[in-house]
Amino acid sequence: MMRNLLEKGLETESSGNKKQAVELYRKAIEILQRDFARADAVEKEKIRRRMASLQSVITGLEGHTPQSTGLDEGALKTIEELGLSVISSHQVKFKDVAGLEDVKRELFTKVIYPLRFPELAKDFNVFVGGGVLFYGPPGNGKTFLAKALAGETSMNFIYVNPSTLYSKWFGSFEKNINSLFTAARGLTPCILFFDEIESLFPVRDERSSEASRRGVSQFLNEIGGFQSNGSSELLILGATNVPWVLDPAVTRPGRFDRMVYIPPPDMAARETIIRHQMEAVSRKGEIDYGQIATSTEGYSAADVEYICRYSAQNAFLKAVNGDEKSRITTAELMDSLKTIKPSVSSGLMERYVQYGKLRGSVPSQ
Ligand SMILES: Nc1ncnc2c1ncn2[C@@H]1O[C@H](COP(=O)(O)OP(=O)(O)O)[C@@H](O)[C@H]1O
Ligand SMILES: [Mg+2]
Q: Can you name the residues that pair with 191 across neighbouring β-strands?
């Protein structure tokens, strides 16, 4: 009964129906309250915590920020000293990310729920902790989705791009990694996001410097540490376009062991992106959205956006040059396809599919 309610709640919540999800979670709390009366002391404590996490989910869904207390000043200062910043007011939500419905659902079951219901996760031996790695061809929403995940859960978000940190952190890499994780723990619930993580973890060889090796082991230890205190509300996220250059140690159990493939947009998602881009354009003529979506098979989400912007620019130039009737039309958009080609070749796409097969998770597209 309880499980059913939570599952239904998850389903409705990930499909965007927050109101109904709140009702389901309220019902779950009622059931817990009944159990509470009958429970012994140990069980009571468990139930109390479960009710508290459900309550904070409801508060989040109703649009209030779950944390009433301010952010830990010391932790904030450390993050700043490391040349980073904490984002706690979020612009992007799941609904802004076109398509990827399966991925969003997977994130709920693999990430959001275990964080919210640590006790239940333990009861069912569902793994909490470690990190989640997004991989897939560039321009399809890995970075975007990480931000949306923070927005969806109202978690604090620390964005780290290791390639820019290397020079800034030169000589104190190991120490800084440690400070970063300590500070992030002080800012929970928090997502610590390492974008383009391959620059942090290239396959180690004889050319790797001693300092970078030590920094990397420090990092792996920090992530591995979550396995033992699984209920931590710190989520480690990583993203990469080139998963095959990662050191194999990185994807071992307890590290980035949950890998999520982020595919290019399918036809429906491409149409959503085009419609969204065109919303802001008032001077448009007839646009056959279905036709453009069909003709952009193999293009990334960012490519599709670019096609729209490029077409708008061309129509604008025509207007500047005196064509008062200039509008964006199907023809204008189709014309742009002659100039703009997919940024990812089919050969490279095949490589992601092969990689997914090797890892035992076959990408759906
Ligand atoms: N699924 C998507 N839905 C809507 N827009 C997207 C999507 N994926 C990418 N975009 C657009 O493309 C831009 C680049 O995407 P990004 O997340 O940086 O790609 P990646 O990190 O996978 O290389 C985003 O800022 C967004 O404007
Ligand atoms: Mg990115």
A: 157, 235
